[in-house]
């Protein structure tokens, strides 16, 4: 099998090339941040570094949202790439399973697959959805979907079904109450949780300021 450092280098190259035209919420920089978050969590969590890093790098390789909802393209693309480098089947399989099952969408239901490596990468991805970067990504996504910033007459609904959530046209601010503020309590690892607590507080501060400015206070 190819040397571990060469495998990571080749994977970085492959992901950068594949994501050249990706929108800014899922571009190479998102992947790099999730990879760095993963490396940070690996300092305190005991896990297989190679599997966690490969999964972090490949986790958004073909997002279903941009492939007519096909949830199998991502895992299949990762498998084909790793197989092309003759990576051993147990690693290929594990990485493929992480990519298949780690999205927030799947976490509406009980997980059919779990491992410490998956928990770490899922935490690393969630950390990039909260805090200052999380705020920036939410408004970027909202702009891309032509959503309103906020509408005080449209209440957030944190108990939506998967289908309702997908078809929602709610303002971007609702996303904070429906998803982003719920992530802190969904963290898998204690090191992830510690970082999430700080980023959560930052979002709460932002929302407080947003609502104050909305009504012309301050
Ligand atoms: P990822 O692929 O990183 O797990 P998603 O594809 O679910 O995450 O979302 C990508 C980014 O877009 C995240 O930062 C998320 O908060 C944001 N986003 C997703 N849905 C919405 C929405 N309805 N309104 C605002 N932002 C959203
Ligand atoms: Ni992601």
Automatic annotation (TrEMBL):
PANTHER family: HD_PDEASE DOMAIN-CONTAINING PROTEIN, SUPERFAMILY HYDROLASE, PUTATIVE (AFU_ORTHOLOGUE AFUA_1G03035)-RELATED
Gene3D superfamilies: 1.20.58.1910, HD-domain/PDEase-like
Cited SMART domains: HDc
Record InterPro entries: HD/PDEase_dom, HD_domain
Listed SUPFAM superfamilies: HD-domain/PDEase-like
Limits of the HD domain: 27-130
The protein's name: HD domain protein
């Amino acid at each position: 099998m190819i040397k571990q450092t060469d495998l990571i280098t080749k994977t970085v190259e492959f992901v950068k090339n594949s994501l050249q035209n990706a929108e800014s919420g899922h571009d190479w920089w998102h992947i790099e941040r999730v990879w760095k978050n993963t490396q940070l969590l690996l300092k305190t969590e005991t896990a297989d570094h190679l599997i966690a890093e490969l999964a972090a790098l490949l986790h958004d390789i073909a997002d279903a949202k941009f492939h007519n909802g096909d949830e199998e393209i991502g895992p299949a693309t990762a498998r084909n790439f790793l197989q092309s480098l003759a990576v051993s089947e147990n690693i290929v399989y594990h990485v493929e399973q992480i990519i298949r099952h780690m999205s927030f969408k799947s976490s509406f239901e009980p997980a059919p697959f779990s491992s410490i490596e998956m928990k770490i990468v899922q935490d690393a991805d969630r950390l990039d959805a909260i805090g200052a970067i999380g705020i920036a990504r939410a408004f970027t996504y909202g702009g891309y979907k032509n959503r309103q910033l906020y509408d005080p007459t449209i209440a957030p609904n944190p108990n939506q079904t998967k289908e309702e959530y997908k078809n929602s046209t709610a303002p971007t601010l609702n996303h904070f109450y429906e998803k982003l503020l719920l992530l802190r309590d969904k963290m898998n690892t204690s090191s992830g949780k510690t970082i999430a607590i700080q980023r959560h507080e930052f979002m709460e501060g932002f929302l407080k300021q947003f609502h104050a400015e909305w009504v012309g206070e301050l």
